[in-house]
Amino acid sequence: MLLRLLAACLFVTSVLAQNTPVLLPQPQMVRYSEEKFPVSLLTVAMPPAASAEVRFALQELKSIVGERTGTGIKNASSSASATFQWVIRREGGALPEVSERDGKSTREHYKLTVSNKGVRVEAQTSAGLYYAVQTLRQLISGEGKTAFIPGVVVEDRPALTYRGVMMDFAHGGLPTIAEIKRQIDFLARWKTNQYYFYNEVSIELKGFPNIAYRSGYTQAQVREIIAYGRQRHMDVVPFLNLYGHLHELLRNEQYAGLAIGQYGHELDPRKSATNALLKDWISQYAELFPGPFIHVGFDETWETKRIADDKDARINSEDLWVQQLTFVQAELKKYGKTVLAWTDMNNYYPDIIQKIPAEVIPVLWEYKPDTVEINRYLRPILKEQKPFFIQPAVSGWGHIYPDADYTYDNIDLCLQAGVKHKALGFIHSVWTDPVEPFVRASWLFMAYGCIGAWQGNVPDKKHFTETYSHVMYRLVAGPMQKAFDDLAAANEALDKCLGRNTNGMPRGTIIESWSNPFLPYYLKNTLEHAADFRNARRLSESAQAELITALATCSPGDTAFIHSMIVTARLMRYSATRFLWAKTICDRWNESMLERKKNDFVAYDLVYPCHGLLVDVMDEAGELKTAYSEAWRSEYIPYRLNTMLGRFDVENGLWEKLSLKVIDYRVESKPDHVADQSFEVLFKPDF
Fold first, then answer.
1. Which residue in 143, 253, 588, 687 is a FRET match for 185, CA 20 to 30 A apart?
2. For the domain that residue 65 is a member of, what is the CATH number?
3. What is the DSSP string of 439-485?
4. Is 224 a catalytic residue?
């Protein structure tokens, strides 16, 4: 009897497990029952005295239910009669505060209970209520009138107090305000509470009319973003550079004199005009961003050190770095700001951590999946017993589509180190240095890091695309999962072919993707990696097919994202195509002319107006230019678009020029003429 009872219990547990919803992030405690509550019976009351944050959370609930049922939630006549009950224990607490640094805050805690009588949320603040609603979004099963919420008790709280994503608004395309709001909505689903606005000179400032003119954001737009984030319990944190990485300022003649190098990257702290400018900037940024935190960068100030080492022995680059950070921290303290700064210059100045101002919070960034490198930067921080943040990244700076395993492992190792050593927070970097890739290709990996920061451990990466696709794209989960997996595999194949010898430039496949494929180096490389290039094409085509399939039945809100991913797949395919086609063209010519000594319809194969190999490339580049432009405009403002489209124009022109060379050679020769030179030598393709 005991064995039968045990077997029955295991069967029930198994059935419940198979039918329970996927929850990302995974709550601290989940206990399911056999009860369930029909979503159609959900009612809610909106008390007149409810705060703006509570009202927003309840409105979010109504939108979620409306999306799943088509009818929405009915209004209850009173709070007592509502089937959605909520309790908030204290007012305020919408955003993370400096006072939560001790890790003991209960501000985001919540308990969610679903029975056959209704839904109840108990939370410390409106933030907990909002996060309970995000969990409830994932608990709903079914569609329309049959949708229900399984019986469950959820008790949840974050592992890390501060959980942020740093979005790059300096290097690549600049997202539209609508796209920034989509990013914030997306990150809110994973209970992210900080959105770091990385800015070099992409925010307009009073008294500096040339800064960010048509290449950035107005202060009114930034305030709109801040307000939007606050509604979703996400503090928009200014992420500035107040020493290095200011080339876009210093390349202007008006400000060039403030640089250490000629039209360089770094301000000269020895000049009084430098700090006068920074005082003005700091006052404006402090007024614009009301939150308590500010990240001031201070990374990669190599130029000062290089000039000090090679040209000017009077410069003590370490002292200047400390002097400037001390000045910036003191100025920001006047406005009540808590300063964060990167610590990578510890690599050059081994004692720098003990010299930084006591109130500055060091931020360790390491973007490689390398425990040795992480610990190299971590040890000095631990030695000085400083509270710290840790910052991994999506590897989007070197690839059209991020390197999946590289990114997953980097996030995992940084999160492990952060949790083990009680980091204050976790910031997930999204860089756009190569400009060409779309940030939307990084969303999957952004979610992975944000989920891990709440849970305190990363999701199972082996099944992450499956669970993520189920949560994000429930109507087309299968095709989306397959597309994500194919894109990752396509990048892995390309990574075997390109990006191995970038020598100081960003590591990755994108650096060489527009190089001359007819150069001896690349023809040899293509011969050695032909199977990998073909595999990249096959996988990119498969991803594109899955994404096109998903378009037919996806949620209307996902179509723009899927279109961007289709362009990403096509860009990856094109990268492989141009190298394979260059090798195929050379082989076709050389095999016929040099080996067989026979003019065997070579010109037809290469330049026939609608089917030649050279025409193939022009067709694809031309069509891709149009699709790329459309995808860019759906995500970014026009700034830098022409720089990207120019690549397609030059590419098309070079293949067209080569095509005309072949046509002219054929016209000028006799019908049976056999060339005595290889294709690459005879035509000297000039890319």
1. 143
2. 3.30.379.10
3. GGGGHHHHHHHHHHHHHSS---GGGHHHHHHHHH-GGGHHHHHHHHH
4. no
Asked if 578 contacts 518 with a C-beta cutoff of 8 angstroms, the reply is: no
Residues 184 and 154 sit within 8 Å (Cβ to Cβ): no
Q: Give per-residue pLDDT as tens, 529-577.
A: 999 999 999 999 999 999 999 999 999 999 999 999 999 999 999 999 9
Judge whether 416 and 449 are in contact, CB under 8 Å: no
130 and 255 together in one domain: no
Q: Across the strands, what pairs with 364? A: 390
Range of the domain at 226: 162-461
Amino acid (1-letter code) at residue 622? G
Find all residues with CB under 8 Å of 192, minimum gap 6, and list them.
163, 164, 165, 234, 450, 453
Q: How far apart are CA 354 and CA 490, in angstroms?
A: 45
Whole-angstrom distance, CA of residue 633 vs CA of residue 653: 24
Structure confidence by residue, pLDDT tens digits, 360-399:
999 999 999 999 999 999 999 999 999 999 999 999 889 9
pLDDT band at 633 (very low <50, low <70, confident <90, very high): very high
Residue 12 falls within a domain, yes or no?
no
Q: How far apart are CA 645 and CA 651, in angstroms?
A: 10
pTM over 0.70: yes
Same structural domain for residues 327 and 386? Answer: yes
Q: Could you write out the DSSP letters of every residue in 45-106?
A: ---TT--HHHHHHHHHHHHHHHHHHSS-PEEPSSTTT-SEEEEESSS---S--GGGGGS---
Please indicate, yes or no, whether residues 188 and 131 belong to a single structural domain of this protein: no
Question: How far is Cα of residue 453 from the mean position of the Cα atoms in its chain?
Answer: 15
Same domain, 260 and 283: yes
Q: Has residue 1 got a pLDDT over 70?
A: no
97, 300, 303, 373: the catalytic one is 300
pLDDT attached to residue 576: 98
State the pairing for strand pair 118-123/110-115.
antiparallel
* Amino acid in the structure at residue 581: W
Q: What is the DSSP string of 663-676?
A: HHHHHHS-TT---S
Cα distances from 574 to residues 131, 490, 495, 606, in angstroms, run: 42, 12, 14, 18
Q: How far apart are CA 383 and CA 421, in angstroms?
A: 12
